[in-house]
Amino acid sequence: MIKFTKMHGIGNSYIYINCFEEEVFNPSKMSEFVSDPHFGIGSDGLVLIMPSETADFKMRIFNADGSEAEMCGNATRCVGKYVYDNGLTKKTDITLETNSGIKDLELDVIDGEVVSVTVGMGKAELEPQKIPVSIDGDRVIGYPISVMDKEYEITAVSMGNPHAVIFMDDIDSLELEKVGPLFENHELFPERINTEFIKVIDEDTLQMRVWERGSGETWACGTGACAAVVAAVLNGYCKHDREITVKLRGGNLKITYLQDGTVIKKGPATFICEGEVEVPPIAR
């Protein structure tokens, strides 16, 4: 048996395991198991909270299909809540090691519990080769791509993981389960891609649906919301240094894209439940 906690950041839910106390021998297979809503627990993936030699804590995150992700903004906030609420730290400013670098977390505490977290997400990467996107040039802004005989325009951004952002007038009727996998596995994206479909409400508000590589459509994606705001500024819909509200299916995030390229993200982190689960033979 292994102890777990289920948490969500505006609907983006993961299973969190405290690796200061527990050991996960095969995190890829464990993620596949716990993510399954029928035979496991049900989630968008698995997050391991671990000791770090370079930061206060370390996070490893695995998608529902078992692949390891570089970064997840919503999971980052939940890790901040977990370590404070469970007494692993008393600090409200902590550092977190991820596969895309060390992130700075500022915890908002009310009555002894973390209710929201502000994360310094680092600088957005726009160079195609570093995202990576198989397109020449210095940036990919409004680049035409054909999917299901329809032309879309993508803006490519990395927030430690790759994103293709598409601006549309109508995202509610979008058949995301059909087009999402075609973007994710398109030949232009050698490491697959997260795809954000964005409706611009006004210069301070965006609406977003997201297809996450390895997980499908999720109710929220923190790095995707950051990429969406960066793309909105690059395309002239929004401005630098303004707090932009990104409305996702699970709730809202507040994103600021600074002039120096740094992105700041603020949003809630919510406890769902905790318990024990038997590790299946395939994950031992």
TrEMBL record:
A Gene Ontology cellular-component term: cytosol
Keyword Disulfide bond: no
Residues the entry annotates as binding substrate: N12, N63, G73, N74, N161, N194, E212, R213, G222, T223
Could be important to modulate the pK values of the two catalytic cysteine residues (site feature) positions: H163, E212
Domain of life: Bacteria
Keywords annotated in UniProt: Amino-acid biosynthesis, Cytoplasm, Isomerase, Lysine biosynthesis
Active-site residues, as the UniProt record annotates them: C72, C221
GO biological process: lysine biosynthetic process via diaminopimelate
One MF term in the entry's GO annotations: diaminopimelate epimerase activity
Location within or outside the cell: Cytoplasm
Any Pfam family: DAP_epimerase
Catalytic activity: (2S,6S)-2,6-diaminopimelate = meso-2,6-diaminopimelate
Enzyme class: isomerase
EC id: 5.1.1.7
The UniProt record lists the keyword Isomerase: yes
InterPro entries (UniProt xref): DAP_epimerase_AS, DAP_epimerase_DapF
Pathway per the UniProt entry: Amino-acid biosynthesis; L-lysine biosynthesis via DAP pathway; DL-2,6-diaminopimelate from LL-2,6-diaminopimelate: step 1/1
Main location class: cytoplasm
NCBIfam families: DapF
Oligomeric form and interacting partners: Homodimer.
Similarity section: Belongs to the diaminopimelate epimerase family.
Function in brief: Catalyzes the stereoinversion of LL-2,6-diaminopimelate (L,L-DAP) to meso-diaminopimelate (meso-DAP), a precursor of L-lysine and an essential component of the bacterial peptidoglycan.
Name of the protein in its database record: Diaminopimelate epimerase
UniProt organism field: Monoglobus pectinilyticus
